[in-house]
Amino acid sequence: MSTAFTSIHAGPVPPVPAKASVAGRTMLATLALAVVFGLAARVVELRPLELLRDIGNVGVFLRGYLHPSFGNVGEYAWQCVVTLCIALWGTVLALLVSVPLGLLGARNLSPHPLVYFAARRIMDVLRAVNEFVFALMFVTAVGLGPFAGMLALGIHTGGILGKLLSETIEAVDPGQVEGVAAVGAGRLQVIAFGVVPQVLPNFLSYVWLRFESDIRSASVIGMVGGGGIGFYLWDTIRSFKDGEAATVIMLIVAMVMCIDVVSARVRRAAI
Amino acid sequence: MVADRSPAVMLDKVAKIFPGKAAPALDDLSVTIEPGQFVAVIGKSGAGKTTLLRCLSRAAVVTRGAIRFDQIDLAALRGAALRAHRTRVGMIYQQFNLVRRLPVVDNVLIGRLGRLTGWSRWGALARHFDREQRAIALRCLDHVGLVDRVWQRTDTLSGGEQQRVAIAKILAQEPTVVLADEPVASLDLSNGRLIMQTLRRVASAVGITVIATLHHVELAKSYADRILGLKEGRLVFDGTPSQLSDAALFEIFGEFVTEPAGRPEADCLGELARS
Questions:
Q1: CATH number of the domain at A67-270, please?
Q2: What is the pTM of this model?
Q3: Who among B95, B102, B113 is closest to A197 (CB)?
Q4: Which domains does chain B have, with CATH numbers?
Q5: What is the pLDDT of residues B127-170, one digit of tens each?
Q6: CA-based, 20 to 30 A from B11: which of A38, A91, A178, A248?
Q7: By C-alpha distance, which of A195, A209, A186 is closest to A263?
Protein backbone atom coordinates (compact mmCIF):
# COMPACT_ATOMS: atom_id res chain seq x y z
CA MET A 1 0.00 0.00 0.00
CA SER A 2 1.32 3.37 -0.87
CA THR A 3 1.20 6.10 1.75
CA ALA A 4 2.67 9.55 2.05
CA PHE A 5 5.64 7.94 3.79
CA THR A 6 6.53 5.67 0.88
CA SER A 7 8.95 8.19 -0.54
CA ILE A 8 10.83 8.18 2.79
CA HIS A 9 10.69 4.41 3.35
CA ALA A 10 11.72 3.52 -0.21
CA GLY A 11 14.96 4.44 -1.90
CA PRO A 12 18.57 3.51 -1.14
CA VAL A 13 19.72 2.63 2.41
CA PRO A 14 22.17 5.33 3.49
CA PRO A 15 25.75 4.26 4.25
CA VAL A 16 26.39 3.95 8.00
CA PRO A 17 29.64 3.89 9.98
CA ALA A 18 30.98 0.38 10.70
CA LYS A 19 29.73 -1.17 13.96
CA ALA A 20 32.44 -2.59 16.22
CA SER A 21 32.24 -6.38 16.49
CA VAL A 22 31.77 -7.79 20.03
CA ALA A 23 31.84 -11.53 19.12
CA GLY A 24 35.44 -11.95 20.29
CA ARG A 25 34.75 -10.25 23.61
CA THR A 26 31.61 -12.31 24.19
CA MET A 27 33.53 -15.57 23.59
CA LEU A 28 36.32 -14.50 25.92
CA ALA A 29 33.87 -13.55 28.68
CA THR A 30 31.98 -16.84 28.33
CA LEU A 31 35.23 -18.80 28.56
CA ALA A 32 36.37 -16.85 31.63
CA LEU A 33 33.04 -17.41 33.41
CA ALA A 34 33.15 -21.15 32.59
CA VAL A 35 36.63 -21.43 34.12
CA VAL A 36 35.58 -19.51 37.27
CA PHE A 37 32.45 -21.60 37.83
CA GLY A 38 34.33 -24.84 37.09
CA LEU A 39 37.04 -24.08 39.62
CA ALA A 40 34.46 -22.99 42.19
CA ALA A 41 32.62 -26.31 41.72
CA ARG A 42 35.84 -28.19 42.56
CA VAL A 43 36.37 -26.04 45.64
CA VAL A 44 32.85 -26.64 47.01
CA GLU A 45 33.18 -30.36 46.21
CA LEU A 46 30.07 -30.29 44.05
CA ARG A 47 28.98 -33.95 43.79
CA PRO A 48 25.30 -34.08 42.79
CA LEU A 49 25.41 -37.83 42.08
CA GLU A 50 26.31 -38.65 45.68
CA LEU A 51 23.40 -36.54 46.85
CA LEU A 52 21.05 -38.63 44.68
CA ARG A 53 22.58 -41.93 45.83
CA ASP A 54 22.41 -41.15 49.55
CA ILE A 55 19.15 -39.19 49.58
CA GLY A 56 17.67 -42.01 51.67
CA ASN A 57 19.87 -41.05 54.65
CA VAL A 58 18.21 -37.64 54.74
CA GLY A 59 14.86 -39.44 54.95
CA VAL A 60 16.09 -41.45 57.94
CA PHE A 61 17.18 -38.26 59.64
CA LEU A 62 13.93 -36.44 58.88
CA ARG A 63 11.78 -39.32 60.18
CA GLY A 64 12.64 -38.28 63.71
CA TYR A 65 11.09 -34.89 62.99
CA LEU A 66 7.69 -36.35 62.14
CA HIS A 67 6.84 -36.64 65.81
CA PRO A 68 7.29 -33.20 67.39
CA SER A 69 7.08 -33.18 71.18
CA PHE A 70 5.29 -30.30 72.85
CA GLY A 71 6.55 -30.77 76.42
CA ASN A 72 8.56 -27.54 76.47
CA VAL A 73 6.52 -25.56 73.97
CA GLY A 74 5.79 -22.82 76.51
CA GLU A 75 9.48 -22.12 77.04
CA TYR A 76 10.13 -22.18 73.29
CA ALA A 77 7.29 -19.76 72.63
CA TRP A 78 8.69 -17.40 75.27
CA GLN A 79 12.10 -17.59 73.60
CA CYS A 80 10.41 -16.57 70.33
CA VAL A 81 9.15 -13.46 72.11
CA VAL A 82 12.70 -12.83 73.38
CA THR A 83 13.91 -13.20 69.77
CA LEU A 84 11.45 -10.53 68.58
CA CYS A 85 12.54 -8.20 71.38
CA ILE A 86 16.22 -8.66 70.41
CA ALA A 87 15.37 -7.68 66.82
CA LEU A 88 13.29 -4.71 67.98
CA TRP A 89 15.98 -3.14 70.17
CA GLY A 90 18.69 -4.23 67.75
CA THR A 91 16.98 -2.11 65.11
CA VAL A 92 16.75 0.85 67.51
CA LEU A 93 20.49 0.59 68.17
CA ALA A 94 21.07 0.28 64.43
CA LEU A 95 19.23 3.59 63.91
CA LEU A 96 21.36 5.31 66.55
CA VAL A 97 24.51 4.02 64.84
CA SER A 98 23.44 4.54 61.22
CA VAL A 99 22.03 8.08 61.25
CA PRO A 100 25.23 9.91 62.32
CA LEU A 101 27.45 7.60 60.27
CA GLY A 102 25.18 7.91 57.23
CA LEU A 103 25.12 11.73 57.42
CA LEU A 104 28.89 12.02 57.84
CA GLY A 105 29.50 9.35 55.18
CA ALA A 106 27.48 11.09 52.46
CA ARG A 107 29.82 12.93 50.10
CA ASN A 108 27.46 15.87 49.62
CA LEU A 109 26.94 16.50 53.37
CA SER A 110 30.21 15.50 54.98
CA PRO A 111 32.00 18.46 56.59
CA HIS A 112 35.44 17.25 55.47
CA PRO A 113 36.83 14.55 53.12
CA LEU A 114 38.66 12.98 56.06
CA VAL A 115 35.42 12.70 58.05
CA TYR A 116 33.75 11.19 55.00
CA PHE A 117 36.58 8.67 54.63
CA ALA A 118 36.52 7.72 58.32
CA ALA A 119 32.72 7.28 58.41
CA ARG A 120 32.81 5.14 55.27
CA ARG A 121 35.58 2.88 56.63
CA ILE A 122 33.80 2.44 59.99
CA MET A 123 30.64 1.38 58.14
CA ASP A 124 32.71 -1.01 56.01
CA VAL A 125 34.07 -2.71 59.13
CA LEU A 126 30.63 -2.96 60.75
CA ARG A 127 29.22 -4.55 57.60
CA ALA A 128 32.17 -6.82 56.92
CA VAL A 129 32.18 -8.40 60.38
CA ASN A 130 29.28 -10.85 60.65
CA GLU A 131 26.76 -10.38 63.46
CA PHE A 132 27.79 -13.79 64.84
CA VAL A 133 31.36 -12.60 65.27
CA PHE A 134 30.10 -9.46 67.01
CA ALA A 135 27.91 -11.70 69.21
CA LEU A 136 30.95 -13.77 70.29
CA MET A 137 32.74 -10.50 71.17
CA PHE A 138 29.81 -9.07 73.13
CA VAL A 139 29.21 -12.35 74.97
CA THR A 140 32.67 -12.01 76.46
CA ALA A 141 31.92 -8.38 77.32
CA VAL A 142 28.39 -8.49 78.77
CA GLY A 143 27.90 -12.24 79.29
CA LEU A 144 25.59 -14.76 77.67
CA GLY A 145 22.06 -13.65 76.89
CA PRO A 146 19.81 -11.47 74.75
CA PHE A 147 21.66 -8.22 75.54
CA ALA A 148 24.79 -9.49 73.78
CA GLY A 149 22.70 -10.62 70.80
CA MET A 150 20.92 -7.28 70.58
CA LEU A 151 24.22 -5.35 70.65
CA ALA A 152 25.69 -7.59 67.94
CA LEU A 153 22.67 -7.23 65.65
CA GLY A 154 22.41 -3.48 66.22
CA ILE A 155 26.07 -2.75 65.47
CA HIS A 156 26.15 -4.86 62.31
CA THR A 157 22.80 -3.58 61.01
CA GLY A 158 23.90 -0.04 61.90
CA GLY A 159 26.72 -0.37 59.39
CA ILE A 160 24.37 -1.64 56.68
CA LEU A 161 21.70 1.02 57.27
CA GLY A 162 24.38 3.72 57.49
CA LYS A 163 25.71 2.77 54.08
CA LEU A 164 22.20 2.69 52.58
CA LEU A 165 21.41 6.06 54.17
CA SER A 166 24.57 7.74 52.88
CA GLU A 167 23.93 6.45 49.39
CA THR A 168 20.31 7.64 49.52
CA ILE A 169 21.54 11.07 50.63
CA GLU A 170 24.05 11.20 47.78
CA ALA A 171 21.21 10.63 45.32
CA VAL A 172 19.00 13.53 46.49
CA ASP A 173 17.94 16.24 44.06
CA PRO A 174 20.56 18.99 44.63
CA GLY A 175 18.16 21.68 43.39
CA GLN A 176 15.84 21.20 46.36
CA VAL A 177 18.82 21.39 48.74
CA GLU A 178 20.05 24.55 46.99
CA GLY A 179 16.60 26.08 47.36
CA VAL A 180 16.91 25.76 51.14
CA ALA A 181 20.57 26.80 51.39
CA ALA A 182 19.81 29.88 49.25
CA VAL A 183 17.77 31.54 52.03
CA GLY A 184 20.84 31.57 54.27
CA ALA A 185 19.87 28.47 56.26
CA GLY A 186 22.49 26.82 58.47
CA ARG A 187 23.90 23.35 57.88
CA LEU A 188 21.44 21.58 60.22
CA GLN A 189 18.51 23.53 58.76
CA VAL A 190 19.55 22.52 55.25
CA ILE A 191 19.60 18.88 56.36
CA ALA A 192 16.25 19.10 58.16
CA PHE A 193 14.41 20.80 55.28
CA GLY A 194 16.34 19.98 52.12
CA VAL A 195 17.58 16.45 52.78
CA VAL A 196 15.34 14.70 55.33
CA PRO A 197 12.06 15.02 53.37
CA GLN A 198 13.79 13.56 50.32
CA VAL A 199 15.42 10.55 52.01
CA LEU A 200 12.88 9.68 54.71
CA PRO A 201 10.49 7.44 52.71
CA ASN A 202 13.33 5.33 51.25
CA PHE A 203 15.20 5.14 54.53
CA LEU A 204 12.15 4.00 56.50
CA SER A 205 11.57 1.31 53.92
CA TYR A 206 15.19 0.13 54.35
CA VAL A 207 14.82 0.14 58.15
CA TRP A 208 11.72 -2.01 57.92
CA LEU A 209 13.45 -4.42 55.55
CA ARG A 210 16.39 -4.78 57.93
CA PHE A 211 14.03 -5.25 60.88
CA GLU A 212 12.48 -8.25 59.13
CA SER A 213 15.93 -9.59 58.32
CA ASP A 214 17.06 -9.00 61.93
CA ILE A 215 14.22 -11.18 63.22
CA ARG A 216 15.59 -14.06 61.15
CA SER A 217 19.13 -13.35 62.35
CA ALA A 218 17.95 -13.09 65.96
CA SER A 219 16.34 -16.52 65.68
CA VAL A 220 19.77 -18.12 65.27
CA ILE A 221 22.04 -15.75 67.18
CA GLY A 222 21.32 -17.80 70.33
CA MET A 223 23.57 -20.50 68.85
CA VAL A 224 26.59 -18.45 69.91
CA GLY A 225 25.09 -17.33 73.22
CA GLY A 226 23.22 -14.25 72.03
CA GLY A 227 19.87 -15.24 73.58
CA GLY A 228 16.54 -16.12 72.00
CA ILE A 229 15.20 -19.27 70.39
CA GLY A 230 18.51 -20.00 68.62
CA PHE A 231 19.97 -21.55 71.77
CA TYR A 232 17.28 -24.27 71.84
CA LEU A 233 17.61 -24.82 68.09
CA TRP A 234 21.31 -25.52 68.56
CA ASP A 235 20.87 -27.52 71.76
CA THR A 236 18.09 -29.85 70.51
CA ILE A 237 19.69 -30.56 67.14
CA ARG A 238 23.11 -31.21 68.63
CA SER A 239 21.76 -33.62 71.27
CA PHE A 240 19.57 -35.47 68.70
CA LYS A 241 16.29 -34.55 70.45
CA ASP A 242 14.55 -34.69 67.07
CA GLY A 243 11.02 -34.19 68.39
CA GLU A 244 12.03 -31.10 70.36
CA ALA A 245 14.03 -29.74 67.41
CA ALA A 246 10.98 -30.19 65.18
CA THR A 247 8.88 -28.09 67.56
CA VAL A 248 11.50 -25.33 67.66
CA ILE A 249 11.80 -25.23 63.87
CA MET A 250 8.02 -25.13 63.48
CA LEU A 251 7.80 -22.19 65.87
CA ILE A 252 10.53 -20.29 64.02
CA VAL A 253 8.86 -20.89 60.66
CA ALA A 254 5.49 -19.81 62.09
CA MET A 255 7.05 -16.68 63.57
CA VAL A 256 8.74 -15.66 60.31
CA MET A 257 5.54 -16.31 58.34
CA CYS A 258 3.53 -14.17 60.78
CA ILE A 259 6.07 -11.36 60.43
CA ASP A 260 5.84 -11.56 56.65
CA VAL A 261 2.06 -11.24 56.78
CA VAL A 262 2.18 -8.34 59.24
CA SER A 263 4.95 -6.69 57.26
CA ALA A 264 2.99 -6.84 54.02
CA ARG A 265 0.05 -5.17 55.78
CA VAL A 266 2.23 -2.46 57.30
CA ARG A 267 3.78 -1.72 53.92
CA ARG A 268 0.37 -1.45 52.28
CA ALA A 269 -0.88 0.84 55.02
CA ALA A 270 2.25 3.02 54.93
CA ILE A 271 2.37 3.49 51.18
CA MET B 1 5.97 44.73 54.39
CA VAL B 2 8.71 47.20 53.70
CA ALA B 3 12.11 45.74 52.98
CA ASP B 4 15.40 47.10 54.16
CA ARG B 5 16.81 49.46 51.57
CA SER B 6 18.22 47.63 48.57
CA PRO B 7 21.95 48.02 48.08
CA ALA B 8 23.50 49.47 44.97
CA VAL B 9 24.92 46.48 43.13
CA MET B 10 28.26 47.35 41.60
CA LEU B 11 30.21 45.15 39.21
CA ASP B 12 33.73 46.40 38.65
CA LYS B 13 35.60 44.82 35.71
CA VAL B 14 34.25 41.37 36.64
CA ALA B 15 35.67 38.29 34.93
CA LYS B 16 34.81 34.69 35.64
CA ILE B 17 36.94 31.95 34.13
CA PHE B 18 36.07 28.31 34.75
CA PRO B 19 39.05 25.98 35.07
CA GLY B 20 39.78 24.11 31.84
CA LYS B 21 37.81 26.59 29.71
CA ALA B 22 39.70 28.90 27.40
CA ALA B 23 36.93 31.48 26.90
CA PRO B 24 35.88 33.43 30.01
CA ALA B 25 32.20 33.02 31.05
CA LEU B 26 32.18 36.68 32.08
CA ASP B 27 34.62 39.16 30.61
CA ASP B 28 35.40 42.68 31.87
CA LEU B 29 31.86 43.38 33.02
CA SER B 30 31.29 46.76 34.65
CA VAL B 31 27.80 47.91 35.54
CA THR B 32 26.01 49.54 38.46
CA ILE B 33 22.43 48.63 39.30
CA GLU B 34 20.60 51.28 41.28
CA PRO B 35 18.38 50.24 44.22
CA GLY B 36 14.84 49.31 43.15
CA GLN B 37 15.57 48.72 39.48
CA PHE B 38 13.93 45.84 37.63
CA VAL B 39 16.71 44.58 35.37
CA ALA B 40 16.40 41.93 32.68
CA VAL B 41 19.53 40.18 31.47
CA ILE B 42 19.16 38.80 27.95
CA GLY B 43 21.44 36.79 25.73
CA LYS B 44 21.90 33.46 24.02
CA SER B 45 22.47 30.23 25.92
CA GLY B 46 26.04 30.25 27.19
CA ALA B 47 26.31 34.05 27.07
CA GLY B 48 27.04 34.11 30.81
CA LYS B 49 23.60 35.05 32.19
CA THR B 50 23.43 32.24 34.74
CA THR B 51 27.10 32.69 35.67
CA LEU B 52 26.39 36.35 36.36
CA LEU B 53 23.52 35.46 38.75
CA ARG B 54 25.62 32.77 40.45
CA CYS B 55 28.35 35.33 41.07
CA LEU B 56 25.80 37.79 42.49
CA SER B 57 24.37 35.15 44.84
CA ARG B 58 27.94 34.16 45.73
CA ALA B 59 27.33 30.57 44.63
CA ALA B 60 30.41 31.31 42.52
CA VAL B 61 33.34 33.65 43.16
CA VAL B 62 34.61 36.01 40.49
CA THR B 63 38.07 35.34 39.05
CA ARG B 64 38.99 39.01 38.54
CA GLY B 65 37.38 42.29 39.48
CA ALA B 66 34.86 42.71 42.28
CA ILE B 67 31.14 42.65 42.98
CA ARG B 68 29.97 44.97 45.74
CA PHE B 69 26.58 45.23 47.42
CA ASP B 70 26.91 48.83 48.70
CA GLN B 71 30.40 48.70 50.21
CA ILE B 72 30.50 44.93 50.88
CA ASP B 73 32.81 42.93 48.61
CA LEU B 74 31.18 39.53 48.04
CA ALA B 75 34.51 37.73 47.60
CA ALA B 76 35.38 38.41 51.25
CA LEU B 77 32.22 36.79 52.66
CA ARG B 78 32.68 33.65 54.78
CA GLY B 79 30.58 31.58 57.20
CA ALA B 80 27.91 33.59 59.01
CA ALA B 81 28.47 36.68 56.85
CA LEU B 82 27.96 34.58 53.71
CA ARG B 83 24.73 33.11 55.13
CA ALA B 84 23.55 36.63 55.98
CA HIS B 85 24.24 37.66 52.36
CA ARG B 86 22.16 34.72 51.13
CA THR B 87 19.31 35.75 53.43
CA ARG B 88 19.39 39.24 51.88
CA VAL B 89 19.36 37.79 48.34
CA GLY B 90 16.18 36.01 47.23
CA MET B 91 16.56 33.35 44.54
CA ILE B 92 13.97 32.31 41.95
CA TYR B 93 14.93 29.31 39.83
CA GLN B 94 13.77 27.93 36.50
CA GLN B 95 13.01 24.59 38.19
CA PHE B 96 11.51 26.30 41.30
CA ASN B 97 13.81 24.30 43.66
CA LEU B 98 11.07 23.84 46.24
CA VAL B 99 11.18 20.79 48.50
CA ARG B 100 8.68 18.71 46.59
CA ARG B 101 7.47 16.40 49.36
CA LEU B 102 6.77 19.14 51.89
CA PRO B 103 3.43 20.93 52.16
CA VAL B 104 3.23 24.35 50.51
CA VAL B 105 3.30 26.20 53.84
CA ASP B 106 6.61 24.57 54.85
CA ASN B 107 8.24 25.77 51.64
CA VAL B 108 7.17 29.32 52.46
CA LEU B 109 8.38 28.89 56.05
CA ILE B 110 11.78 27.81 54.68
CA GLY B 111 12.06 31.45 53.57
CA ARG B 112 12.04 32.40 57.27
CA LEU B 113 14.95 30.11 58.25
CA GLY B 114 17.61 32.78 57.87
CA ARG B 115 15.54 35.24 59.93
CA LEU B 116 15.03 33.06 63.01
CA THR B 117 16.90 33.82 66.21
CA GLY B 118 17.39 32.08 69.56
CA TRP B 119 15.22 29.09 70.47
CA SER B 120 13.07 29.26 67.36
CA ARG B 121 16.14 28.20 65.34
CA TRP B 122 16.14 24.90 67.24
CA GLY B 123 12.37 24.49 67.02
CA ALA B 124 12.61 24.89 63.26
CA LEU B 125 14.84 21.82 63.03
CA ALA B 126 11.79 19.78 64.07
CA ARG B 127 9.73 21.80 61.58
CA HIS B 128 8.11 23.70 64.42
CA PHE B 129 7.44 27.38 63.81
CA ASP B 130 5.72 29.72 66.23
CA ARG B 131 2.43 31.47 65.60
CA GLU B 132 4.05 34.67 64.37
CA GLN B 133 6.15 32.90 61.73
CA ARG B 134 3.16 30.87 60.54
CA ALA B 135 1.09 34.06 60.27
CA ILE B 136 3.78 35.65 58.09
CA ALA B 137 3.85 32.56 55.84
CA LEU B 138 0.07 32.58 55.43
CA ARG B 139 0.02 36.29 54.54
CA CYS B 140 2.75 35.73 51.95
CA LEU B 141 0.81 32.83 50.41
CA ASP B 142 -2.31 34.97 50.34
CA HIS B 143 -0.32 37.65 48.52
CA VAL B 144 0.27 35.27 45.59
CA GLY B 145 -3.29 33.92 45.75
CA LEU B 146 -2.48 30.40 46.92
CA VAL B 147 -3.73 30.38 50.49
CA ASP B 148 -6.22 27.61 49.67
CA ARG B 149 -3.32 25.28 48.76
CA VAL B 150 -1.54 25.75 52.09
CA TRP B 151 -1.56 22.09 53.24
CA GLN B 152 -1.15 20.50 49.82
CA ARG B 153 2.03 18.64 48.94
CA THR B 154 4.10 21.02 46.83
CA ASP B 155 4.70 18.58 43.96
CA THR B 156 0.94 18.29 43.37
CA LEU B 157 0.85 21.94 42.22
CA SER B 158 1.26 23.00 38.61
CA GLY B 159 4.48 24.66 37.45
CA GLY B 160 2.99 28.14 37.53
CA GLU B 161 1.61 27.60 41.03
CA GLN B 162 4.95 26.27 42.25
CA GLN B 163 6.69 29.37 40.95
CA ARG B 164 4.16 31.49 42.83
CA VAL B 165 4.96 29.49 45.99
CA ALA B 166 8.62 30.33 45.30
CA ILE B 167 7.64 34.02 45.17
CA ALA B 168 5.75 33.64 48.48
CA LYS B 169 8.91 32.09 49.93
CA ILE B 170 10.86 35.17 48.78
CA LEU B 171 8.27 37.42 50.41
CA ALA B 172 8.74 35.53 53.67
CA GLN B 173 12.50 35.82 53.32
CA GLU B 174 12.44 39.66 53.08
CA PRO B 175 15.44 39.97 50.74
CA THR B 176 16.79 43.29 49.48
CA VAL B 177 17.69 41.90 46.05
CA VAL B 178 15.87 39.22 44.06
CA LEU B 179 17.80 37.17 41.51
CA ALA B 180 15.60 35.24 39.11
CA ASP B 181 17.30 32.71 36.83
CA GLU B 182 15.02 32.06 33.84
CA PRO B 183 11.94 32.29 36.11
CA VAL B 184 9.46 31.55 33.32
CA ALA B 185 11.46 29.29 31.00
CA SER B 186 9.66 26.11 32.12
CA LEU B 187 6.20 27.70 32.08
CA ASP B 188 3.72 28.35 29.30
CA LEU B 189 3.23 31.90 28.06
CA SER B 190 0.22 32.88 30.14
CA ASN B 191 1.73 31.48 33.32
CA GLY B 192 4.99 33.17 32.41
CA ARG B 193 3.21 36.51 32.13
CA LEU B 194 1.46 35.93 35.46
CA ILE B 195 4.78 35.20 37.17
CA MET B 196 6.42 38.28 35.64
CA GLN B 197 3.45 40.43 36.68
CA THR B 198 3.61 39.03 40.22
CA LEU B 199 7.36 39.65 40.43
CA ARG B 200 6.91 43.15 39.06
CA ARG B 201 4.07 43.94 41.48
CA VAL B 202 5.99 42.61 44.48
CA ALA B 203 9.15 44.46 43.51
CA SER B 204 7.30 47.75 43.08
CA ALA B 205 5.33 47.30 46.31
CA VAL B 206 8.41 46.84 48.50
CA GLY B 207 10.85 48.72 46.28
CA ILE B 208 13.50 46.05 45.96
CA THR B 209 15.93 45.35 43.14
CA VAL B 210 15.12 42.48 40.79
CA ILE B 211 17.66 41.03 38.38
CA ALA B 212 16.13 38.42 36.07
CA THR B 213 17.66 36.46 33.21
CA LEU B 214 15.20 35.97 30.39
CA HIS B 215 15.55 34.58 26.91
CA HIS B 216 12.19 36.03 25.89
CA VAL B 217 12.93 39.46 24.51
CA GLU B 218 9.25 40.41 24.55
CA LEU B 219 8.89 39.60 28.26
CA ALA B 220 12.05 41.56 29.03
CA LYS B 221 10.74 44.54 27.07
CA SER B 222 7.34 44.57 28.75
CA TYR B 223 8.45 44.18 32.38
CA ALA B 224 11.98 45.52 32.84
CA ASP B 225 13.11 49.10 33.57
CA ARG B 226 16.51 48.30 32.16
CA ILE B 227 17.89 45.61 29.89
CA LEU B 228 21.42 44.25 29.87
CA GLY B 229 22.47 42.30 26.79
CA LEU B 230 25.25 39.74 27.21
CA LYS B 231 27.21 38.12 24.42
CA GLU B 232 30.07 35.73 25.11
CA GLY B 233 30.43 37.10 28.61
CA ARG B 234 30.63 40.74 27.52
CA LEU B 235 28.11 43.53 28.01
CA VAL B 236 26.97 44.52 24.52
CA PHE B 237 23.78 46.39 25.43
CA ASP B 238 22.72 48.47 28.43
CA GLY B 239 19.61 50.56 28.12
CA THR B 240 15.87 50.92 28.47
CA PRO B 241 13.43 48.65 26.63
CA SER B 242 12.66 51.40 24.11
CA GLN B 243 16.35 51.71 23.26
CA LEU B 244 16.49 47.98 22.40
CA SER B 245 16.46 48.30 18.61
CA ASP B 246 16.55 45.53 16.03
CA ALA B 247 20.21 46.38 15.48
CA ALA B 248 20.89 45.91 19.19
CA LEU B 249 19.05 42.57 19.15
CA PHE B 250 21.13 41.48 16.20
CA GLU B 251 24.25 42.42 18.13
CA ILE B 252 23.14 40.31 21.12
CA PHE B 253 21.66 37.30 19.38
CA GLY B 254 23.41 37.29 16.00
CA GLU B 255 21.31 35.73 13.25
CA PHE B 256 19.28 33.71 15.79
CA VAL B 257 16.49 36.22 16.34
CA THR B 258 15.86 36.71 12.63
CA GLU B 259 15.05 33.01 12.14
CA PRO B 260 11.39 32.56 11.23
CA ALA B 261 10.96 29.86 13.93
CA GLY B 262 11.33 32.54 16.59
CA ARG B 263 8.52 34.65 15.14
CA PRO B 264 5.25 32.86 15.92
CA GLU B 265 5.93 32.94 19.67
CA ALA B 266 6.59 36.65 19.55
CA ASP B 267 3.31 37.10 17.70
CA CYS B 268 1.49 35.08 20.36
CA LEU B 269 2.90 37.39 22.99
CA GLY B 270 1.69 40.36 21.05
CA GLU B 271 -1.80 38.92 20.90
CA LEU B 272 -1.75 38.10 24.61
CA ALA B 273 -0.71 41.63 25.39
CA ARG B 274 -3.56 43.01 23.28
CA SER B 275 -6.24 40.71 24.71
A1: 1.10.3720.10
A2: 0.80
A3: B102
A4: 9-274 (3.40.50.300)
A5: 889 999 999 999 999 988 999 999 999 999 999 999 999 999 99
A6: A178
A7: A209
